């Protein structure tokens, strides 16, 4: 039988103190994580209220995950075909987007901002864990919101399709969504003329930006007049976030 020496007993007390210190540190970290979780949720709750929607408690986890990975965003593949304008930032740009797989949600709420908010919350859950591989998939930009105008071109139709591009590693074998309202779709190649604008996106701001873009382009039959895309590059919690209006070129 091994003997227990006096110095071993002395060391035992020190080890216990160290373990207590380590345990205390863990509790502090957990408290800090919980505080951060609460702070982020409260911030997004305010943002959601400006979009006239409520934020469910189960969004706390996806919000924390999206915040942790906010600096890593994969751009949707595309080719810039031409730029127009003499300023440092082009007045508008023409691009080609190849075919690819997107996760899509369609909503038809009374307000545009309600539709895109509810759809994006569903996509956030899918991106963060509610998928067949059970892990964070990665964020891509931009997220697209496809809209339609009425015959007079004065109002948006209620139905809005919100689409998230699957990261490159999942293009061949997309994770299956747990939410039946999310559909994985192979979208055809797209040729668009784009113009940047900043701030919140509502029916009013979108109609204004479409009107300004038409003034810039002049009369042309080369693009669709009833269907447009609002591309968003930053999450809804950023007040002066970057957006783009996309005019869709007609198939040749």
TrEMBL record:
It holds the Pfam family SOUL. Residues 9-35 have a biased composition (Acidic residues). SUPFAM superfamilies: Probable bacterial effector-binding domain. Coiled coil: none annotated. InterPro entries: Reg_factor_effector_dom_sf, SOUL_heme-bd. Residues 1-37 are annotated as: Disordered. GO terms for molecular function: heme binding. Belongs to the HEBP family. PANTHER family: HEME-BINDING PROTEIN 1, HEME-BINDING PROTEIN-RELATED. This is LOW QUALITY PROTEIN: heme-binding protein 1-like. It comes from Aythya fuligula.
